[in-house]
């Protein structure tokens, strides 16, 4: 039994809310007690090593401030060389260059993540937003720009296998019984959520002026002296529920059109303003499948920083919802399909070996991303996955849906209570 969900259990979340001044940072840096995690477009810098017993293991590639500064200068040179070359071929374009030093020195991109054993942990956004005045649109530069940045980051760490890796891939590569790696994942999730919120909160919603980072990135504030609106990190709560027919021992699982083929999951939906969690469970179930819900039992909750890009962090709140009506009427705008499933079929879906395969395949992809090998071997791995597929499967152990479903399968109706 896992002790908590993926992305929960962050060991460095701190009570400390005080402002982290430049002097504090310098002091921590000179004492070797400042660890900085660079993230590029929400992807944390990680290292991956091959294990003697087989397989790979990844860890967050914490840096000191000096290494980050050197890497940023390296990035700046690499990107400017690329831009100069491109502009030499395109006559009549204005000269463009970038300067990252401003961003890092202002600390606007540095966010305090927490403390542990006398060490201060921060996340640093090295993504290329605000580009220098007069520069071309970021989108136009996109792919090569990012490649230039990623490459430049390899330079100071050429002896280590480091790379910026997608958080969802890291999540899928993590064995849910591997506590040390789960802790790394929770820190990465928190870092990404915070930096993403900063990126999306650069302007005041009340007066439109720019905002500045305050309290070491714990909040932002409008720069307009009259307005001074305070902005706090945002959460988007979602209810997720396993709808149960107590009498017949069945559960409702649904499919969204964006799901992988054969994947089924619990129903879920956003909580609306002015609504309680229970009301959201009843409304969403009624809207999506036309079923009325009576008793509702809380199971557990999970932070989810890998949801839609417009949301820096969702909070999934999981319930068992006992149906009082049983005819399914699917809202086709929300779901492709929804059905009652019996315990045996759901049990079979859960016992799928696909989870282990998926985790190992993802783990290899993580390692390859760090080693710069991209996806050379992935086609053969996916071909192996394609053998003996069961008729359905449910999301892997990294998702709360998996645990709602497996709790029901494992425990029967009498002991349906919080398991994590
Ligand atoms: Zn304002």
From TrEMBL:
Q: State a single Pfam family of this protein.
A: NUDIX
GO CC, sorted alphabetically, is: cytosol; peroxisome
Domain Nudix hydrolase: from-to ranges: 233-363
Q: Which GO terms describe its biological process?
A: NAD+ catabolic process; NADP+ catabolic process
Keywords in alphabetical order, please.
Answer: Hydrolase, Magnesium, Metal-binding, NAD
Catalysed reaction, written as an equation = a 5'-end NAD(+)-phospho-ribonucleoside in mRNA + H2O = a 5'-end phospho-adenosine-phospho-ribonucleoside in mRNA + beta-nicotinamide D-ribonucleotide + 2 H(+)
Say which enzyme class the record assigns. hydrolase
Show the Gene3D superfamilies listed in the entry.
Answer: 3.90.79.20, Nucleoside Triphosphate Pyrophosphohydrolase
**Its Enzyme Commission number?**
3.6.1.22
Its required cofactor(s), as named, are: Mg(2+); Zn(2+)
Listed GO MF terms: metal ion binding; NADH pyrophosphatase activity
Task: Please give the family membership noted in the entry.
Answer: Belongs to the Nudix hydrolase family. NudC subfamily.
Q: What is this protein called?
A: NAD(+) diphosphatase
Natural source organism: Ceratopteris richardii
